[in-house]
Amino acid sequence: MIDPASTADGGWRFDGLRALYINCTLKRSPELSHTDGLIDISRAIMDKHGVAVTVLRAIDHDIATGVWPDMTGHGWPSDAWPAIYQQVLDADILVLCGPIWLGDNSSVMKRVIERLYACSHLLNQAGQYACYGRVGGRLITGSGVGWRRTMWLEARRPRGQGRGRRSSALTPRVGEHAGCVLGNLKTLVQQRAGQH
C-alpha cells in the first residue's frame, strides 16, 4: 500500500505511484508539440508530489490499427501496442494527452483509444478488469472548437477501460486558459489503503 505522507510545507507526497502520459500529438519527435508543453506543466506537479512520470509520444511508435490486444496475430507485420500496454498496466495513473483537430480528437488519439478498448476485456489475477484500481485523466490542447465535446466523450471512456476517473482530472488548455491535471491522488491512495 502507498501511504501519502505530508511534507514540511503541508503538501502531500505520493512516492511509489507511477503516471504514464501518452502524448497523441500528430508531430514526431523531436518536433515541438504544444501538448508537450502542457504535459510539462502537469508533470512538474506530479514530480513535486513524488509521482514517477513516464511520457510516451504515441506517433513515434508503430502502433497497428485494430481492436485486438496484439495485431500481429491479425495480419499486421509489427505492433508496438503490446509493449505500450504493459506500461499502461504498470502505471497507477494514465493521462491521455492530445490536440483537437477539426473539433475532434487527433487520429493518433483515436488509435490509442481503440487499442485501449481492445484490451478492455483482459482481467488481472483477481478476476477484475486489468486496470482496476487505477485512475485516468485527459489533457487537451487546441483552439477551443470541440473541447467540450471531446471532454464529454473522454469522460465516459476510462470507466469502460477499467479505470476510474474524477471530473477534476479532465482539464483543457484552450487559448488563454491553461490548466493541468494532478487528478485526485489523495483519494486514490486512500482507496488503495481501504480508507474510502
Overall description:
This protein is an alpha/beta fold and 196 residues long. It has one domain (5-192): Rossmann fold. The protein is 30% helix and 20% strand. The protein has helices at residues 34-48, 81-90, 107-118, 147-160, 185-192, and strands spanning 5-6, 12-13, 18-23, 52-57, 93-101, 104-105, 135-142, 170-174. The radius of gyration is 17 Å and the shape is globular. The two termini are 14 Å apart. Mean pLDDT is 80; it is low at 158-162, 165-169 and 173-186.
Indicate the topology.
Elements: E1 5-6, E2 12-13, E3 18-23, H1 34-48, E4 52-57, H2 81-90, E5 93-101, E6 104-105, H3 107-118, E7 135-142, H4 147-160, E8 170-174, H5 185-192
Parallel strand pairs: 3-4, 3-5, 5-7, 7-8
Antiparallel strand pairs: 1-2, 5-6
The major sheet is characterized as: 6 strands, mixed
Structural category: alpha/beta
Radius of gyration: 17 Å
Number of helices: 5
Q: Shape from CA axes?
A: globular
Question: How do the SSEs run, as a string of H and E?
Answer: EEEHEHEEHEHEH
- Head-to-tail CA distance between termini: 14 Å
Percent helix, as a range, is: 25-40%
Total number of domains: 1
- Mean model confidence by pLDDT: 80
CATH-wise, what's the superfamily?
Flavodoxin domain
Task: Characterize this entry briefly.
By secondary structure, the protein is α/β, with parallel strands linked by helices. 30% of the residues lie in helices and 20% in strands.
Features:
196 residues; alpha/beta; Rossmann fold; six-stranded mixed β-sheet; two-stranded antiparallel ribbon
